[in-house]
């Protein structure tokens, strides 16, 4: 299992805690990335939103791409997975920026392609906002252009949304994507390298992996897909202490700064199952992954995900640095032992 985490570009993950002691600033992002390499984390996802959907639109949020470029220059091992939304970037220009950051990092950049959901953000930044399936149609063309300019010299393309003539650009980073609608899953199976899922129990994740593998099998020329899952981790000495922390962080009121964004998100996306306010309280349905309890319980849950085919856990913590230290010390080494023990029993 590879362990990743969400870079707190919004200053935290909890909608009912105004100050989580993890400010949205470059010094904090730099400190976190450098320390995460030292304690065993493999990847950091840098989300892209120009407004803060966790703490409210008036709160600070870091730009994903300039942050990623800066982190590439001050880290040496960690994978930098940068979210990109096609509606906000012309594909050939973004491909050029991404290739340059990948070069700066020594080949550590990957992309997480996200079709936009927030109508207010698009309007405030002067970007057109289309209906759900139209956004995925745009994303499909966007991926065609990015893949084309990364893989072929003198690439030309003419589509409904984009036109490129005689482009020259090298090389090609890996592309992750997420989504739960049929349009999203078909697109990911055909044009991406890896599937990132919202938080869910291992058995539900296993069903999703089987589904994506079947969709991928229709494209026999492509390599097998890789799979990752989001999760919010709480590790404590006792299970009761862990559950007390869950209660503390899920007491979300409808007056919270991010509640209006919750309504827009529900309206602008297509999910396979209903999301409760408790689910939304920590973003990305992170608590549904069940990474809550003692170190032994969490390590066993990690092993259960690994047995479904998951190779990357993208975790959230609060406060980020302190809880990452706890997780690395208590779980990452223990997970390796449990995984080895289960492998021995299976064989």
Overall description:
The chain contains twelve helices and twelve strands. It is α/β, with parallel strands linked by helices and 347 residues long. It is globular. The strands form three sheets. It has an eight-stranded parallel beta barrel. Helix 3 packs across helix 5, helix 7 packs parallel to helix 11 and helix 11 crosses helix 12. The model is unreliable at 343-347 (pLDDT under 50). Strand 1, helix 1 and strand 2 (43-46) form a beta-alpha-beta unit.
Summarize the helices and strands and which ones pair or pack.
Blueprint: E1 2-6, H1 26-38, E2 43-46, H2 64-74, E3 79-84, H3 91-105, E4 109-113, H4 119-124, H5 132-151, E5 155-158, E6 163-167, E7 174-177, H6 182-191, E8 194-197, H7 202-217, E9 226-232, E10 234-235, H8 239-249, H9 259-268, H10 277-280, E11 292-293, H11 295-308, E12 312-316, H12 320-346
Parallel strand pairs: 1-2, 1-12, 2-3, 3-4, 4-7, 7-8, 8-9, 9-12, 10-11
Antiparallel strand pairs: 5-6
